[in-house]
């Protein structure tokens, strides 16, 4: 008896129908998952808003305490210079000329805008000094809606014979100052002096974040030089090879 070959396409049709059913169920599952994810996103946004409200509230509570701290710091000679030089990352930004200028740094202030999401400013206050006319240098970071950051800074008014213009060292008393703009901490301010007053520079942002999130939070730990330097170690997690070799040599000597 011959086999009815006409039934095979029907079997294939059933398989296709089953596949389509699976595809429909998959799409429905993904749509439901997206709905749940959207719900979570909404909750997260509400949580972020609440966190910002709390942060803004405690910024007001912290302000008088920061002011009190600042007044005490003013009585300690070279406090901010010492704190900067003891910081594993920020210390590399100060050349010899910068260190002389930092001896006139009386206070440092980091202030969030009233709406924390809008940005913050970093202000350096100086006593009268032979380097520039300004007693206050401020750099402001404004977070824009499109996700970029507008950065503005005080244009430093260097006194005659001081500072740099176009990367060329000035001369004082007939001698050229060994002071390169790119190696100076104060190029952090001049780097924003553009027509649109904006600059997107990861290095500049990194410096600001180090000051805002680390140094400003507890400058005393750096003044006392007791900060944990492991936080600023090699990003690749490399160990101190010299120390390990020494330990291995000691073990070999003991075995011999």
TrEMBL record:
Residues 226-256 have a biased composition (Acidic residues). InterPro entries: NAP-like_sf, NAP_family. Belongs to the nucleosome assembly protein (NAP) family. Residues 26-57 form a coiled coil. GO terms for biological process: double-strand break repair via homologous recombination; nucleosome assembly. This is Uncharacterized protein. The keyword Coiled coil applies. PANTHER family: TESTIS-SPECIFIC Y-ENCODED PROTEIN. GO terms for molecular function: histone binding. Pfam families: NAP (PF00956). Keywords: Chaperone, Coiled coil. It comes from Deinandra increscens subsp. villosa. One of its GO terms (cellular component) is nucleus. It comes from the Eukaryota. Residues 164-184, 223-256 are annotated as: Disordered. The keyword Chaperone applies.
